[in-house]
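pasting for the record
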Amino acid sequence: MDIGIGTKIKHVRELRNYTQDFMADMLGVSQSTYARYEKEDGDLTISKLQKIAEILDVKIEDLINFSDKYIFNNYASNQANQGYIVNQFSENEKKLYEDKIKLLEDKIIYLQQKAK
C-alpha cells in the first residue's frame, strides 16, 4: 500500500525533528494550513512541494518516492549488525577529522606535561 504525499512529508519532517509550526513559518503559512498539507486536505501546489523539499533538505523526487519501509528496514538492519553505521566520508572530510584528532591528542599531551 502506497502512502500519500502528505504522510511522506510528515515522516520526513519528523525524521528531521521539525515541528509543524517551524515548517509553517518557513513556508509563510499558518500551522493549520501546513497541517492540511500533511493531511492532504489543503491545496498543495508543485511550488509549495518544492519549497517543502528544500526546507527538509531532500530532492523533490526523493520526497515523492519516500518509503518509510526503507528507514525502518535500514534501522533494523543496523541493529542486527550491533548498531554500527558505516559513514561514507570524503577524503577531505577524513583528513579534517584526522587533523582534528591529532590536534586534540597533542593538546592532551601538552596539558599533561604542563600539569607535572
